[in-house]
Design a protein that fits this description.
- The complex is a heterodimer.
- Chain A is mainly alpha-helical.
- Chain A has one domain: MetI-like fold (Orthogonal Bundle), CATH 1.10.3720.
- In chain A, α1 packs across α10, α7 packs across α8 and α8 crosses α11.
- Chain A is elongated.
- Chain B contains 15 helices and no strands.
- The chains are: A mainly alpha, B mainly alpha.
Chain lengths: 278, 322
């Protein structure tokens, strides 16, 4: 496996990305063991700068920032995974239907996709999140709503370019059903590019989600969500440690996804690059 | 365009809460006549499809409705907030083009060597950094600690705004010959514009690098080199010029993104632009406000794309003859 020049392990960026990501996943899993304090235990009147006991300092109600950042991984990571998977599934299904069946179904679905894409993402997400009520679940929903069209376009393009390939035609001639053609014959060929897009989009989704939380349209204050923690720092901006550490947490997690996606794209080039451009 | 109005209208129909509760006080809510009057005023007592038809009808007459928060027409609210964001986005796109081109060219020329690797690392960081967090960090460092830049807002507290011509303070101040005011507005503009530009700088850098590398493969570049043209001339005349065409396209689209992407930056820097307006409307469930902002910004978005398409035909001679 090491001999394959295209192996992800030969790409330093991919290795860094996977390492950071694994670290965050471990932190999320073992949060109760690593955290030095209870993330919601309050100690009023103690807003401490980073010190030997509270490495990242404490916030305005005396909660340990380090422990909150650690517990924050338990909120952000699963949610980002969930929103990537959801938008991937929704986008792929819509794209596959549009690409495979073509005709009026294609026109309607793609017109709809284009309209959603024409919206500036953050404004649409903000409006939806606010309309549904400021809650983390609704913010995830809002991000999915903004994110799926990219997948739909990619999948449609990939299906269009390979649905008339000989191997699909011969499989259909052998009596394969539409479902079989889509899931058995076509899926292996399009899953690579989709996963690259997912890795690249995971970072964007995470940024949008934490941005919504920062604006107060996602997670609500007692929660240790990173975006919410940064917004607490915005209200106390002279206490730099409140915002800096959760922000660095977001940055490293998003960076890991982007490193991974970027390296994967290089490996799968040029087909992905071409499909992504269409 | 019609699709956009339909979507933004559907979004406003998602509201589970009653906008009347948010906009009328407790005591007013307990009085059914007031609630009914308020509903009738904003047309909320009619069936949903009829509300949509009424909205479209008003929209075609340039009427975006009354904002429930400012109690003013949404269109005059937007006329006040849009220039601020426009000013910010213009400076940001200027920075983006300047540094995006510079870094992109350097990266392409040193492909796979260390400057390229470093630039790749920096640009990946640039697209990964949460804007709202970077705004705070810059604000803390450059205003609070170093005092290189003034605090938030568009002008120092207490200064008079220049008489409105374009609504962009720097331009207005210049037109009136108020140079100190121009300088002040300009200094207030810098920090948010830099933060806003970071993401676009990263995107343009990567795009510039990719398009230069693509062009370098062409036969005419090889021919230019073969006939002994100095490398700098080959790059300038045969590579950069065609590359610029596609860069302009991307920059046009990026400008539309900057207008919308300013929400988080405006929030931190208390910049009174459309982003702030969209945010406040969303929080206050001001439905006409939300719809107005999304329709206008999406409209600008689409217009930018159209303009880019037209510009493309002008710049690229090979498309002109089709």
């Amino acid at each position: 496996m090491k001999k394959n020049p295209n192996s992800p392990w030969r790409q330093p960026l991919a290795v860094i990305g996977i390492t950071i990501l694994s670290l965050w996943i471990l932190i999320a899993i073992f949060a109760p063991l690593i955290a030095t304090a209870d993330p919601i235990a309050q100690n009023y009147g103690e807003l401490l700068a980073p010190n030997a006991h509270n490495w990242f300092g404490t916030d305005s109600v005396g909660r340990d920032v380090l422990s909150r950042v650690i517990y924050g991984a338990r909120i952000t990571l699963p949610l980002s995974m969930m929103l990537v998977i959801l938008s991937m599934i929704i986008g792929s299904i819509i794209g596959a239907i549009a690409g495979y069946f073509g005709g009026w179904l294609d026109s309607i679905l793609m017109r709809f996709t284009d309209v959603v894409l024409a919206f500036p993402g953050i404004i649409l997400a903000m409006a939806v999140a606010a309309a549904l009520g400021p809650e983390l679940r609704n913010a995830v929903f809002a991000v999915v709503l903004v994110a799926w069209p990219t997948y739909a376009r990619l999948v449609r393009g990939l299906i269009l370019s390979s649905k008339n390939a000989d191997y699909v035609t011969s499989s259909r001639l052998l009596g394969a059903s539409t479902m079989r053609a889509l899931f058995v014959d076509l899926r292996p060929n399009i899953s690579g590019p989709i996963f690259v897009l997912a890795a690249l989009e995971a970072g964007n989704g995470m940024l949008l989600l934490s941005g919504l939380s920062f604006l107060g349209l996602g997670a609500r204050p007692p929660s240790a969500e990173w975006g919410t923690m940064v917004s607490a720092g915005a209200n106390n901006f002279d206490k730099w440690w409140l915002a800096v550490f959760p922000g660095l947490a977001i940055l490293t997690a998003v960076l890991a996804f982007n490193f991974l996606g970027d390296a994967l794209r290089d490996i799968l080039d040029p087909r992905t690059a071409k499909a992504l451009r269409e | 365009m019609l699709g956009i109005t339909l979507i933004s209208f559907s979004v406003t129909q998602l509201v589970p809460g009653d906008p009347a509760t948010l906009n009328l006080g407790q005591s007013a809510m307990s009085n059914p006549t007031i609630v009914a009057t308020w509903r009738a005023k904003y047309g909320l007592d009619k069936p949903v499809p009829e509300q949509y038809i009424i909205y479209i009808n008003h929209l075609l007459h340039g009427d975006l409705g009354l904002s429930q928060q400012s109690r003013r027409p949404v269109s005059s609210d937007l006329a006040e907030y849009l220039p601020a964001t426009f000013e910010l986005a213009t400076v940001a796109i200027f920075f983006s083009l300047l540094f995006g081109l510079l870094f992109g060219i350097v990266a392409a020329m040193t492909r796979d060597r260390w400057p390229d690797q470093i630039i790749r690392f920096i640009t990946l960081t640039g697209v990964s950094v949460p804007t709202f967090w970077l705004s705070l960090v810059f604000f803390y460092l450059f205003y609070f600690k170093l005092s290189w830049f003034p605090s938030n807002g568009r002008l120092d507290p207490g200064s008079d705004t220049p008489i409105t011509i374009t609504g962009m303070f720097t331009v207005d101040a210049l037109l009136h010959g108020q140079f100190s005011l121009f300088w002040q507005a300009f200094r207030h503009l810098m920090l948010p514009a830099i933060v806003l530009a970071i993401y676009t700088i990263a995107v343009l850098t990567r795009f510039t690098r990719a398009s230069i590398l693509e062009i370098l493969h062409n036969d005419y570049v090889r021919a230019a080199r073969a006939k002994g043209l100095p490398e700098s001339l080959v790059i300038r005349r045969h590579v950069l010029r065609p590359a610029l065409i596609s860069i302009v396209t991307v920059a046009g689209v990026a400008f539309g993104n900057l207008l919308a992407g300013s929400v988080l930056v405006e929030n931190v820097f208390s910049w009174p632009g459309v982003g702030q307006y969209a945010y406040r409307s969303s929080i206050g469930l001001d439905l006409p406000g939300i719809m107005g902002v999304s329709i206008v910004v999406a409209g600008i978005f689409i217009t930018m794309n159209l303009l880019v398409d037209i510009a493309y035909r002008f710049i690229d001679p090979s498309l002109r003859h089709e």
